[in-house]
Design brief:
Blueprint: E1 9-15, H1 19-30, E2 35-38, H2 47-50, H3 71-76, H4 86-99, E3 106-107, E4 112-118, E5 123-128, E6 133-141, E7 163-166, E8 181-185, H5 189-201, E9 204-209, E10 215-217, H6 225-232, H7 235-243, H8 263-276, H9 292-309, H10 313-319, E11 332-334, H11 337-340, E12 346-350, E13 356-359, E14 363-366, E15 369-372, E16 375-378, H12 387-391, E17 393-396, E18 399-400, H13 401-404, E19 423-425, H14 438-458, E20 463-466, H15 468-483, H16 513-525, E21 531-534, H17 536-542
Parallel strand pairs: 1-2, 1-6, 2-3, 4-17, 6-19, 7-16, 8-9, 8-16, 9-12, 10-11
Antiparallel strand pairs: 4-5, 5-6, 13-14, 14-15, 17-18, 20-21
Helix pairs in contact: 1-14, 9-10, 14-16
The protein binds ligand NA7.
Length: 543
Amino acid sequence: MPAARSSNSVDVVIVGAGFAGMYMLHRLRGLGMSARVFEAGSGVGGTWYWNRYPGARCDVESMQYSYSFSPELQQEWRWSELFASQPEILRYANHVADRLDLRRDIQFDTRVTEARFDRATYRWDIRTDCGDRVSARYCVMATGCLSTARLPDYPGMDRFGGKTYHTGHWPHEGVDFTGQRVGVIGTGSSAIQAIPVIAQQAAQLTVFQRTPNFSIPSRNGPMTEAYADGWKSDYTALREKARHMRTGILNNPNDVSALEVTDKERQRIFEERWAAGGTNFMAAFNDLILDRRANDSAAEFVRDRIRETVRNQAVAELLAPKNHPIGTKRICVDTDYYGTYNRENVTLVDVRTTPITEITPNGVRAGDVEYRFDAIVFATGFDAMTGALLKIDIEADGQSLRDKWEAGPRTYLGLMTAGFPNMFMITGPGSPSVLSNMMVSIEQHVDWIADCVAYLRSHGLDCIEATQSAEDAWVEHGNEVANRTLYPLANSWYMGVNIPGKPQVFMPYIGGVGAYRDTCDDIAADGYRGFALTAQAAALAAE
Ligand code: NA7
């Protein structure tokens, strides 16, 4: 265990140095507040620090998946591709850390293990696995929504004689699969990005699929000067527009029902979106996520593209999702995913009909067959949205967050949870977070939190807590909005279904980034309606 490197008192402890924690630190410094960031990794970047698997890249265009708070930063940085790869995004994160001199307040290789609120002092007592103990007025959880990697619990997991990897914990030195027999378990976004790249290296690649996913070609390519300049010449206005979009992405939404146009016109619009590539496909009509018939038309369009691409029709049918509406599990974006199944060295195994029963010393047993591998890649996802928070022992007034959230997360605005004063979450459950451009949602939350603590300070206050009634109303509203959509029909990680025993509730807020921002702004302008604000700590200190 490394020696403790700090033992003191700060205004704010921030947990995590991904894009959320980095910007939070920057904003707090701007307010003249002291802050310490604890980060489990050895560097900044969060998701982009850990997810180094082959083919990892963002599915939001780089011109939009980047910070907007600094005009200089967004003008000077040059992206090389339309959709940046993980190494490039990590370089960007490091560039920002250098440029803003963030590292001096970040303690790396340190995992926060406990956070306890002491009502007598109105401060958080934070402890780490390195033995640090820090007292902070506020605690900001910038722990990420997809940061707790999940391995299946097949018998024999530790018996395999070859190498095993999880896409979310990829070795920094990279992996060369040349000449190897490789098994990939899972067909979510990570697998869909990794499979085409691994297939090019490996001698044999076997993909174990439980649920097929819809994937749209990215049409990625080099970033031309003209394209980047088009954005940069009007960046301020475009960013502002994006902040008010439904997903925080300028995706050219077509405000027309898929059911109002002729079959021919519908097909033409889908063709156009498919040719343009990326998640904008889902903005082809305004009711794809609301109306099953509208959704079916989009789903069938994509299934037909799969049938067209994959030569073996039995394999194409296995790859064509039929059990969930398109978009209700996170839509994937790929480069030659379906085409990869035309390669001689790639095999698809349907684990619904031939379930994996064990990991053997030689590989994977599914049905009656033992598949022999040199390496197994687990692309099996994350304990999403709540996993990282609940890994920490968070407690206030004798109540743990794990107990409070036993039946599923409950928050007010996804920013705070009642009974846990002065603890903020960035892109927490109950906020648009994973349904949006994370950069836009991160900036919105960080700005809201920074403005909030500045407000408290300027009003001689230092304690804020979500009220139970505001939280209950927000949870009810969130469920109501979700139930108006098709989202709850899918067994998705949005619903917690991928984790055995996890409560099944729809965790993100689907009301839209723009509307959500307006709500948050309105609540703040109204003196933080639904929050109890007090000056008790100041009174205590004065005694
Ligand atoms: P996902 O999207 O959760 O995908 C995980 C995949 O692994 C998915 O296909 C799962 O099938 C599959 N899985 C999980 N456990 C098993 C077991 N036990 N056996 C077989 N298959 C299994 O994670 P990703 O890392 O791909 O993507 C996460 C997000 O990161 C993504 O949405 C982007 O926002 C970035 P299932 O669907 O559960 O049947």
